Amino acid sequence: MKKGSSGAEVQALQTRLAHLGFDPGPLDGVFGGATDSAVRAFQRSKGLPSDGAVGPETASALGLSAIPGVTVEIVSRMFPGTPVEDIEANLPPLLNALVEAQLDDHRMVLMALGTIRAETAGFQPISEGPSPFNTSPGGQPFDLYDRRRDLGNQGAPDGERFKGRGFVQLTGRANYGVRGQAIGLGAQLVENPDRANEPAIAAKLLASFLKSRETQIRSALEAGDLPAARRLVNGGRHGVDAFSQAYRTGDRLIAEA
Length: 257
Description:
The chain is an all-alpha fold. The chain is built from 13 helices and two strands.
């Protein structure tokens, strides 16, 4: 939304701005000069670019949403114990990535959010830590990954270099290469794998991964088989309870909104 827009969404924006103490002028559904000034003032108060346009980042900060019904408040209830500021910071790039990937329908949005809940617990891209699953007793961190041909690794230090990162825990040289190409980074992600933890890139990687398995995931979700949908991401039962809880909570809350 921007100056010149009109309709029910603009009226909802004006109502929200007024509630937050930023005078948008008449609540008439017309994005005029007063609403533009109110949006810019709100953006400055949040340290956002003061351009007057209500895109995903500004909408999320306002408690509105680039995807109808998906608000910071609702996502906070799907992620109990997660600091709300982490959701406020990382929800906008996620929603933007889902819109770009044409995965912004109800089920796929819940799939993405449930996956983040299962993979990172909080709402931040994270790096995988050493564990008995990736590190031998007394060995260098992630040495069990070093020569995993199924991951495309070529020996030390590939295990640590291409450890799990992001919202979906992207792992392995081959996966960094494929997903980097898919989101338009070319070889940059292989050359600098830490970029997988940048929120906007982490969001695009998650959307790209879900897109690559979209048909199978949709079939599982339509059948109500949440464990099967989770297996299509993780390959097993890890995180299935957290995933299912977040999915069902979001399904109920968004439907009620």
